[in-house]
């Protein structure tokens, strides 16, 4: 059975979450394309934030501010759109999340064991300290690169991992990044765990013999820190443009800011929108750095994976219109192999991954995405991973679940209990390593 170190935090006032007082989230299940279109229109009309976007054959999860909840529910009722409550009180869920993270910290302190970034949700400094230590301890295979600075001046770091100092031109390059969307906290642990497996726990020598690796765990450090200190569901960068509105509504959705059909679909030209694509392609320091890494390694880069959450999906281009690339068969075959590798490792509480074209898997188009850009410049295999959340009915007993991973219905999606961090990181690594090997075989 799972053992908890009891931390008495119930009386603590979590002031940083006051902004979410009264917010609620709802499952929504459109039965037709018409209902789906109506739900899509609410994103701008009622400032609805979709944690998981709905589609006709899948529930979505919508976050709704207090001032819009009555109108939101009226629209659903009038249009006969099936729905149910996901969370009655978002702030209380975030308070619980903080308690669980602190309890996890306390477990490691009690054992006098260093806490790794793939074992809990850690702040940027802790992630960077781990990267610094790995580079210092393994200088023969690891090089720490500070690629540039974020808008607010934080370093954007990545590790180059190679047994031949990136000098063997016969080796293929794999690039994995995470956290372009700041609130997706499960993604840095998955990226850091890949570092751990490549450097500290090398169980598969082929992965260094045949590949050079680039791992960037936090590509949006400003947003990531802000999501810890101010707004848990902050998604964008923290940049300010030259217009007045940007001072009130900061930031850009980095995964809408790449120069691939920029500003066409699934994005917004309003600064305040969560999916604001910026004033122009590559307006952000953060996306320009990812662009530069892709281009600098293009001649050998065969696989690019950008980690997101949540939804248990592996998606490939093209996302703006649902058309298939010339390499669609290869993309699908490697995608299926990666999903199968996850399924062989995963816990029963996680849903099985869906694999396919981005638009068809999520049910909506999006332009300016990183994976589409990487594919457009010549990277043969590019994927957006949506790591898992836990979604199940409250009356589902899940008798087959491991006792150490009991179902916590109060923590779903972005509120994934810290006990699940390492299992998610481990199964994601199985996908990444499988993807690398399959990519080399077909490219």
UniProtKB/TrEMBL annotation:
<dbReference type="InterPro" id="IPR003146">
    <property type="entry name" value="M14A_act_pep"/>
</dbReference>
<protein>
    <recommendedName>
        <fullName>Peptidase M14 domain-containing protein</fullName>
    </recommendedName>
</protein>
<dbReference type="GO" id="GO:0005615">
    <property type="term" value="C:extracellular space"/>
</dbReference>
<feature type="active site" description="Proton donor/acceptor">
    <location>
        <position position="386"/>
    </location>
</feature>
<dbReference type="Pfam" id="PF00246">
    <property type="entry name" value="Peptidase_M14"/>
</dbReference>
<feature type="domain" description="Peptidase M14">
    <location>
        <begin position="120"/>
        <end position="439"/>
    </location>
</feature>
<keyword id="KW-0645">Protease</keyword>
<keyword id="KW-0482">Metalloprotease</keyword>
<dbReference type="Pfam" id="PF02244">
    <property type="entry name" value="Propep_M14"/>
</dbReference>
<comment type="similarity">
    <text>Belongs to the peptidase M14 family.</text>
</comment>
<dbReference type="GO" id="GO:0008270">
    <property type="term" value="F:zinc ion binding"/>
</dbReference>
<keyword id="KW-0378">Hydrolase</keyword>
<keyword id="KW-0732">Signal</keyword>
<keyword id="KW-0862">Zinc</keyword>
<keyword id="KW-0479">Metal-binding</keyword>
<dbReference type="InterPro" id="IPR000834">
    <property type="entry name" value="Peptidase_M14"/>
</dbReference>
<keyword id="KW-0121">Carboxypeptidase</keyword>
<keyword id="KW-1015">Disulfide bond</keyword>
<dbReference type="GO" id="GO:0004181">
    <property type="term" value="F:metallocarboxypeptidase activity"/>
</dbReference>
<dbReference type="InterPro" id="IPR036990">
    <property type="entry name" value="M14A-like_propep"/>
</dbReference>
<dbReference type="GO" id="GO:0006508">
    <property type="term" value="P:proteolysis"/>
</dbReference>
